[in-house]
Amino acid sequence: MRGLTREQQIFLKVTGAYVTEERPDISFQFVFDGVHQPAIGIGSRVVDVSFHNAERLFQRIFLEGSMGLGEGYSEGLIEVKDEDYKEFLCICVYATSLRILRHLSIFDMMAVVRARAGGYFSKPRENATIDNHYSLSDWFESDDDSNRFFHYWLDRDHRMYSCGTWDPETKTLEESETNKLELYAKRMGIDERSLGGTLLDLGCGWGGVLFFMAERFGIRSKGLTLSTAQHSYITKEIRRRNLQDLVTVELRNVHDMEGTYDYIISIGMLEHISDFDDLYEKTARALNPGGQALMHSIYSESWFYKSDRWFLKYIFPYGACPNFSSNMRCFRKYFNVVEPKKMPYLSYPKTLDAWFANFCKAEPQIRELLQQKSKVKDVEFAIRTFKHYLAIASVSLSFAGFVGHTLVKEPRI
Fold first, then answer.
1. Which residue stretches of 129-273 are H helix?
2. Rounded distance, CA 30 to CA 47, Å?
3. For residue range 373-410, what is the model confidence (pLDDT) as tens digits?
4. Of 181, 264, 249, 166, whose CA–CA distance to 216 is shortest?
5. How does DSSP assign 106-126, residue by residue?
6. Domains in the chain, start-ordered, CATH in brackets?
7. pTM higher than 0.70 for the full model?
């Protein structure tokens, strides 16, 4: 390791431990500023990664954690095939597992833990910037262009931007999202006898739930969103599908919900909420007698509030995964019946992998869209940023956290 910085040496040690403990089927070939390093591992699958301005890059990674890693990739300082990028990221994410740390000296261990911790910080959350991500308002003037960007890589059938349900028999992204909608209808007791019932979707995305419930079961469905692009898309789809009598959508904060409903659902919206007490109390008050609500979210099991700095800056401003235990206590404050369940194992990583594959496949069209229709000044940086987001989220959710759906009914108020 002569001529390498301490950070580079630690990274190579971590990689060796990762290969030994987690992936003996892989071997890594690293190149630091044109200088090839000895291969790590003897696995038949070879992952080639080249680092540019390597000394400064690894200083940033060890000092800034996820921010240095994500920005380094977006700036083109990390070169690796799309299909191999997750394998490289696994080294970074799994570095703080005990199986890896026990291979390091106490000083190297401290450096690794400090680097990982540097990617997180505590910060109050708001939901006022939802439009920034879901409409990409900083990128596009046109809502149609924003929608087109997302629809290049989301599922074709429902345009769901949330974890699908991946049973052992599930083969495609489209199947996984249909599985989820069927599961959630069943959990809420929605079937052919529910004709004429009412449903409110809090944070309705591009209307996947609204259209499924209306067309399959004749449910009168209303969606609330803060995304102008999503509102525009749903409004057009309502007319195209001739569902004016069954589906409506409003640009409205979910905390300002009005009316009462037989069913209330929220999928992937709790990550943008800070006042759960207010939301759950209003949800309880908005249910008709005998009604029930279902809340789907990525949950953290950590007692400490942690937000990833890179995600906050580039993907979800003010977003964070709610703590599972505290959320369950809050649910029980307002509902007599609280029934949490988890998605099948690795459902979200599989969903993210499918999105990543779709994104890479559609990259030429996405690049053209950004070049011709967006305000983005550095298209390559933007594309790599979204690739990193989908890949690192998949690895991170394989390592920690889970996706759950909680059915609540019998309000206490």
1. 130-134, 143-151, 173-187, 208-217, 228-240
2. 8
3. 999 999 999 999 999 999 999 998 998 889 999 999 99
4. 181
5. HHHHHHHHHHHHTTEE-----
6. 6-118 (no CATH), 130-411 (3.40.50.150)
7. yes
